[in-house]
Amino acid sequence: MFLLIAIAVWACALVIWWICSNAFRHSDLDKLKSRLTGTTKTKAVKAAPGSGGSLIHTEEKNQLLATKFLRRFQLQSKLQEIIEQAGMKWSTHRLVNTSLVAVVAVGALAWMMLPGQLQRFAWIPALAAGAFPLLYVLRKRRARMRKFEEQFPDSLEFVSRSMRAGHAFSVSLEMIHREFQEPLAGEFRRTFEEHNLGLPLDVALQKLAKRVPSLDVHFFVSAVLLQKRTGGNLAEILDKLAYVIRERFKLRGRIRAISAHGRMTGLALSCIPIGVAVLMFYTNPDYVRFFFLDDVGNIMLGCAVSLQIIGYLIMRQITKIEV
Predict the structure, then answer these.
(1) How many whole angstroms separate alpha carbon 275 and alpha carbon 126?
(2) The model's pTM
(3) Class of residue 263 by CB neighbours under 10 A (exposed 0-12, middle 13-18, buried 19+)
(4) Which of 7, 184, 203, 210 is deepest in the core (most CB within 10 A)?
């Protein structure tokens, strides 16, 4: 019975998400068509005292709830930057709407499946499900940045060899797109196209450093801009920079190998209380129910979970060494 209810709730959530995403997509297309054809309708609103009699577009009044929420808390630009760095085609309101649907669906499912005494804790899996889309985007972003950093030293040597062969620096950037794979090829192609369409080279490189938050890319941009102002052999500078980046990778691998014991110890110490709680739930359920049903038990459980998380973060910070 519970399985059937879970499948029904999940199906309803998928249908709601599909309907909402199609409605949002059609509204965006209609707005774009109206702007291209010049048929955007405006509605005059009575101006407030001292406002100068401004006109407010009706489309501004009908903004999406997710967009209003992001603009209110100034999160739209940050989320859009994270999505762009992850290489995904999502929009910010799609990410927020997906999280909201996940919160509602999982919260309703947990409310129906949990016993009556534990239904007040249904918000915990609901919040975890709401954070899952953002965690997925962050995971994709981290994997994409790691792959970019792995390809980056080879691209610097490629640019250096191209310049020694007589090609200009901007042409070498365009050649990277044909010789390398994503995500490095797409980022450098975008930089070349921005420069080719009239954007100054220093501005295009600074935008590359902003899109790819890597220390190696910042070193590369700083070296190119400094060579442009003061002169020098850029090919030799890029070769030395590629050598330094590779040495940093080797040192980072050694540090991860040395600190692996500390990371595994922290993970084991953090999982032991969870395992003990699960075993106690099966061996002595009455003892565990105290933490969920009693007010004092709720406080003790909240303090224990908070201290456990703080301890794990401290152990993780101890074993985290930046290179």
Answers:
(1) 22
(2) 0.64
(3) middle
(4) 184
